[in-house]
Amino acid sequence: MALDITDAFTVGGLDLGRGNGISVLMMSGEIVGLDGTGTYAINADGTVTGSDGGADADVSMTFGAGQIVVTQYDANGTGAGIEGAVAELAFNFGTAASTAEIEIIGGFANFGVDNTGGTVGSAVVDNIIPAGLQAMTGNTIKFAMGAPYEQEGGSQISISGTSILKFSVIAFCKGGHVGQ
Amino acid sequence: MALDLFGAATLGGLDQGRGSGRTLVMMTGEVTGLQAGGINTDVLVNDAGNVAAAQTSITVDGGGGDATDFIKVGDRLFSTDAATGVILNEIGTVTSVTSTSVGISAGTAFALANNDQLFVAASYQVNADGTVSEEGSGHLTATGDLVMNYGAGQIEIYGSDFAQVAGTDEKINRGGVALTMEVIFGNDFSATDSINLIGAIASVGWDLGSGTVGSAVIDNVCFASVAGISGNKVTLLVGLPYENEGGTQLNIVDSSILKFCVMAVTDSNGV
Fold first, then answer.
1. Helices (H) and strands (E) in chain B, counts
2. pLDDT along chain B (271 residues), means of 10
3. Closest alpha carbon to A26 in A82, A66, A77, A58
4. Residue A109 forms beta bridges with which residues?
């Protein structure tokens, strides 16, 4: 058997699972100023408010709302924090991390970096970035942002405060929506 | 114009596409005990004349002297090349086993050379209530090694490569691949009689230390590639811990925990 997480159809051997009413969430956009911590609140109108070292202009959203928290900057992934990661990004699908609302059951991220200091919102991605699943709790899904992918025998490229991360994060949540 | 994959709603500019009736399925969780899907069995082909394809019995040694300690009836049997360790072949399903022989009644799918490594797949069944059980013989597999957050079906792991770091006892060389993971959205794999997957994606991470499965603390970036989609099964190649260029590659170990999230899209023409 397999569980239909969207409840749209029950085809053949699909059993209706806990996914009844599951929703698809997404945030996509670009973020700069990764050389430090930053917390970015994105309201339903797409307005960004930076704090904890982050500036409003650091984030340009293409889609989505919530909160993005950047921590553990490490220019080339060789220092403290997750091995091979240059930063950690938590995507909170709400005004802040919470376990009292939606529950994320899965998600995926695609990352790329403009490492030449372009303009956030119109990045020209020139480096592949691995995205590693780190944690899922409540309305939060967290990914480790890998160091720029380098072919074997090359020289590891670092990121910097002017590097622009282009991201697309999709998550699936079940039940417990606010007001329900 | 964008195509609505599911046909569940036609919002705004979405035109209903060919995907009408398609569905999303997902499995998320954590798995450890990777030795069960690895080659630490150390059971070897013991035939100086080698073993041709389509043979129904393989003479073996190694593994502490008794192959039954590591290989059971019902196991999926794999081999790697003794000389280079770079080959990963599925030989067949074990139908009999003694201390010094392994039977494949359907015949070996590939030829084997003397001293080729043999190993089996770890296999877990997850029912609709989320209860995990061992599939087949469950040899070396512990139900507690898999903790599911969401989803049901079957998960199989094989070809675990524990020795990417130079100088260690490398018995298999899978390049940057740490293991193969098959995610089956059903009680058993079926290419024709169940749902038909048309696409899949995975996100993964490693807890390399001695954490607790179910509450892994990810300490290594990892990524996975879709190696195949057939019927109700997605086959993934899970990478070794991502290492920055010039760094030192880290190994996975038996107690490493793989955190995974696998989503697939099913077509509407199932059973």
1. 0, 20
2. 42 44 86 81 89 96 86 92 83 96 97 92 90 74 90 93 61 84 93 86 91 94 92 94 86 92 79 39
3. A66
4. A169
Q: Test A6 with B270 for CB contact under 8 angstroms.
A: no
Indicate the residue of B24, B195, B208 with minimum beta-carbon distance to A12: B195
Distance between CA atoms of residues A103 and A175, nearest Å:
7
Q: Is B35 helix (H, G, I), strand (E, B) or coil?
A: helix
Distance CA A18, CA B192 (A): 26
Q: Measured between alpha carbons, how far is A23 from A107 in angstroms, rounded to an integer?
A: 11
The complex scores an ipTM of: 0.79
Measure CB to CB from residue A2 to each of B21, B152, B206 and give the nearest one: B152
Residues A9, B24: contact at Cβ < 8 Å? no
Rg (CA), chain B: 20
DSSP assignment string, A95-148 = SS--SSS-EEEEEEEEEEEETT---TTS----EEE-EEEEEEETTEEEEEEEPP
Which residues in B lie closer than 8 A to residue A82 (C-beta atoms)?
Answer: 218-221
- Please return the burial class of B8, using the count of CB atoms within 10 Å of its CB with bins 0-12, 13-18 and 19+: middle
Contact B23 A155 (CB under 8 A): no
Q: If we measure between CA atoms, which residue out of B114, B137, B96 comes closest to residue B45?
A: B114
Cβ burial A57-96 (10 Å sphere, 16+ → b, else e):
ebbbbeebbbbbbbbbbbbbbbeebbbbbbbbbbbbbbee
Q: Which one, of A90, A30, A36, A35, lies nearest residue A58 by Cα?
A: A30
| Smallest Cα distance from A54 to chain B, Å | 24
Mutation site, A3, A20, A72, interface B, largest B CB count within 10 A = A3
pTM, rounded to two decimals: 0.85
What separation, in Å, do the N-terminal and C-terminal C-alpha atoms of chain B show?
31
Tell me the count of A-B CB pairs closer than 8 A: 173
DSSP letters along B63-111, please? GGG-GGGT--TTPEEEEE-TTTS---EEEEE--EE-SSEEE-TT--SS-
The distance of A105 to chain B (nearest Cα, Å) reads 6
Q: State whether residue B176 sits within 8 Å of chain A by CB.
A: no
Strand partners, A164: A114
Q: Which residues contact A79 (CB under 8 A, 6 or more apart)?
A: none
